Amino acid sequence: MTNPLQNTLFVPIRPDLKLHVLHWPAGGKPFVLLHGLASNARTWDAVARHLQTAGHAVYAVDQRGHGFSDKPDDGYDFATITADLAQLCDQLELEQPIIAGQSWGGNVVLEFGARYPQRAAGLVMVDGGFLDLQSRQGVTWEQIADQLRPPQLAGAPRRQLQERMAMWHPDWSSEGIEATLGNFETLEDDSVRPWLTLERHMRILRALWDQRPQQLYGQVAAPVLIAAAEDDGNPEWMAVKQSQVAAAAEQLPHVTVEWFADTAHDIHVHRPQVLSALILDWSSRL
């Protein structure tokens, strides 16, 4: 059954690329939502509904190589990814949208704000945007590539993966678990494989390694909202994250920071109603 409150679009960006976009129509200020690395547009479903209910048009995007979007061999650097986003906004005739991104998607939002400083009314970075993989002294690319290499999940039964996710995230909604399973293609034998190939995953990770957020903050003109997740179970990472968020807050010209206690990295999946309320309150003052 189709949902009259949400449409599916395939937007041509260039000859080798159409982007899959979920659209929640409304008449108000538009929002464009970007997922994280190896994720998918469906993870924004609950947030998108809250924004639409408040009167806003919403567009959640499968970025190149992900989900139902096309998967060219090249173009996984930040310059190309942000050019995709600029072209998408042109194709959708969106003037001054608010652009939100989670994790790597937050760093895409940061890069977009620096490269296209007049294109967005506001930028929302959800546990991302401040991610600086080179900020930890002595860490090498080889170590990062080993530590953050994705697990081998191709061939796993979908039901088994669903059960694992529910065990790892017992307070996530069933909708959130199902949306996260959308990171994978389900094959005829009901096994899964990631939409994003390992090679492309590692290219994006390398681009994230090479990106230096502190060189970009001063080039961002739009107001920024940072939503950051607190993880009390990992104090070493929290110390790094707090330092990175503090650097962003100090150097971005117009920034608001909100911390989410006891919240997963996927804030938009774990606490969509609270995140939506924060975004709506912040954006109402722009």
What do you see in this structure?
The protein has 286 residues and is of the alpha/beta class. It has ten helices and ten strands. It has helices at 45-53, 78-91, 104-115, 141-147, 158-168, 174-181, 198-210, 235-251, 267-270, 272-283, and strands spanning 7-14, 17-24, 28-34, 56-61, 98-102, 122-126, 184-186, 192-194, 224-229, 255-260. An eight-stranded mixed beta sheet has the order 1-2-4-3-5-6-9-10, sandwiched between helices. The protein has a two-stranded antiparallel sheet with strand order 7-8. Helix 1 crosses helix 10, helix 2 (78-91) crosses helix 3 (104-115) and helix 5 crosses helix 6 (174-181). The mean pLDDT is 96.
Strand and helix map with partners:
Elements: E1 7-14, E2 17-24, E3 28-34, H1 45-53, E4 56-61, H2 78-91, E5 98-102, H3 104-115, E6 122-126, H4 141-147, H5 158-168, H6 174-181, E7 184-186, E8 192-194, H7 198-210, E9 224-229, H8 235-251, E10 255-260, H9 267-270, H10 272-283
Parallel strand pairs: 3-4, 3-5, 5-6, 6-9, 9-10
Antiparallel strand pairs: 1-2, 2-4, 7-8
Alpha plus pi helix count = 10
Q: Give the helices and strands as they follow along the chain.
A: EEEHEHEHEHHHEEHEHEHH
Distance between the termini: 37 Å
Broad shape: globular
Radius of gyration: 18 Å
- Which regions are unreliable across 5 or more consecutive residues at pLDDT < 50? none
Number of strands: 10
Secondary structure: helix percent: 25-40%
